[in-house]
Amino acid sequence: MKNNSLYFFFLLFIQIGFAQNNLQWQGYFSYSEIKGVSGSANTVFAASENALFSKNSSNNIIKTTNTVDGLSGQTISSIYHSVKFNKTIIGYENGLIIVINEADGSMLKVVDIISKQLPSEIKKVNHFFEHEGFAYVSCDFGIVQFNLATMQFGDTYFIGDNGAELKVNQTAVHNGFIFAATINGIRKATITNQNLIDFNQWSIVASGNWLSVNTFGTELYAINTAGNINKFNAVSNSFVLIKQITPPFLYSSVAADHFTVTTLNTVYVFDEQMNVVRLINSNEIIESKPNFSCATIIAQTVFIGTKENGMITSPLSNTFNFEDITPIGPSRNNIFSLEASAKSLWAVYGFYPGNYNPYQSPQGFPSLYGISKFDYTTWLNIPTSEVLGARALSNVAINPNNNDDVYISSFFSGLLKIENDKPTKLFTPQNTAPNGLQSIEVAVAPNDIRINNPVFDKEGNLWLTNNLVEKALKVLKTNGQWQSISFATVLPELTNYGGLVIDKNNTKWAASRRGVVGYNEKGGVLKLITEGSEKGNLPSPDVRSVAVDNKSQLWIGTNKGLRVLSNVGNYQTEGQITANPIIILDDNLAQELLYEQFITDIEVDGANNKWIGTADSGLFFVSPNGQETKYHFTINNSPLPSNTINDITINSVTGEVFIATAKGLISFKGTSTAASEDLNNAFVYPNPVRPEYQGTVKIAGLLDKANVKITDVAGNLVYETTAQGGTIEWDTTAFGKYKVASGVYMIFISAQDGVETKVKKVMIIR
């Protein structure tokens, strides 16, 4: 297929960033998992999973940096701030290095380590140590020298036995020698030696597995996996045990006259005599009792990074005063599912893999996480302790008649109800009998209740799927009564269900691993669309997503491609319903749109465009009929932090498209809003249009297919178009020929049938 992607940049060793013009991206990243910390005299620099933030203690300004600003979506493994060069260096697990010039915010992407002819699994960047203008980069294969002035790599040191690759955790320079803490001993060499690429120039001064080596004051200290802190004795050329800490050791840092050592539950702060001047235990932080990941000291304040609770600070003086300085955001990056309304966005983190087995979560059991809500201003994170024990939270339904009434399905525990941001009830078989929820018929554990895809119909009833039971479709009526519908006549074998959608005829379309099941209460009609030319023509029976567009077409996403049912209105009249591929022409060759792609989600915007997420190929934005791929967003040409798209949702009022990936949440601020029912709320923005504004004028709150004409005060027509959805854009030119002059312009809006009209004005100042 022809590459219709919009490429924003090509980067090897050049300045990076996204000049999006009209492509407006916004990042909503989690800063809860702190990977590393560094600092200057008054600023802390912290790295989370794949984003950064800094806080200046002089003005308390917090600055965030993520993929929208030019960072990679890969996992960060190390961070270092050079005070001398005013540059922040970020190292990644895949070997990428990004250098940020703090003076102007520019970024440099360095791919030399990625390009090395080495196995990809040993390219991780572990640590940066600065000495006389060079950063010594500790990697899983050895040490790389990086010139902080020229931004160029120098030599690479393979210091293992006979010049083999050797994992280096950290380096330090002491009394004219460079020391390397490795998994196979501490090795040293003369720092001025011009032949350090020769492994013979490196000698072993201590055996064992060493995690850290630091110059502190006039001494050199190293820490091994046993939690032993050792001091180097130059006379004996060996390390001597002086203290022990409770392992596992995680992080060490030297700042001014303090040496900080971090373990999972303790932060030790030593003075130059190696006396403990502050000992912080995680249980002192009553609210969260976090697991620590790193720590450092800046201006008599201890900055503590945690694994799930962001960045916490405390005065160096021995107090129990702790402050959370983590930037607001969702509690985790790997959002499994999300749902937007006009008032808020909800996100959940439950997990099941492609085989729908919740026991295969990273936690080793059905996952237990909290819930996040974004009111388009700030985030509210409902902690794990408040979700009533509901595990594997999988999908969200927001009551269209009351946005404070939210239901979240659990793929292990039932259905969770949230009222006014508080989880209030967990629906299970015990409190919904006899026609309500059911445990799976072949239970792996007691009370294994796998609920998915809650959706409200236009009457306010809540429909959902109950996996691995015969009566797979459930409905919670507005009167509080439950009803169950069996799919056994079309699906005799028990199965799992993906998406669920309800069309304008009140037909329910349920995606399953055995096809799409359609159900309509009128006559209790059940039908199945599945694999095979005579059974529905799907490329695979494993259907993951379904969506009904503005022309009553059913779009069906499978693990092996896309199909479209031309008219859901044929459900009652046709026998076997058949879906068809979308055939496009590429260089005069007929090809199938999204052939063999694993489609994870399909969403329809206000202009009937389709946003299609995939398991490993990024995001496709296609025209209403699918014949034009407007954009194909990937990690290489957009701020997407991952090509794995978990879910998509659209704020129908603003047109903002939210994209949940495996590495973070971002949004595309489109203009394809849902059409209004009348023109009472039509508005123009910005108004007035000032000289410094470079964007377009938006006319929103329109009826679908409304006619919009723009004239000057003399009545001369300068622009005309027909709305596709609820918003149109005007580039302030006269039919694209030239910029219109300063003045007041009249906007005449009329419905397609001409019955309803509205007149607006916009002032343009050049």
UniProtKB/TrEMBL annotation:
<feature type="domain" description="PorZ N-terminal beta-propeller">
    <location>
        <begin position="44"/>
        <end position="203"/>
    </location>
</feature>
<dbReference type="Pfam" id="PF21544">
    <property type="entry name" value="PorZ_N_b_propeller"/>
</dbReference>
<dbReference type="InterPro" id="IPR048954">
    <property type="entry name" value="PorZ_N"/>
</dbReference>
<dbReference type="InterPro" id="IPR026444">
    <property type="entry name" value="Secre_tail"/>
</dbReference>
<protein>
    <submittedName>
        <fullName>Putative secreted protein (Por secretion system target)</fullName>
    </submittedName>
</protein>
<keyword id="KW-0732">Signal</keyword>
<dbReference type="InterPro" id="IPR015943">
    <property type="entry name" value="WD40/YVTN_repeat-like_dom_sf"/>
</dbReference>
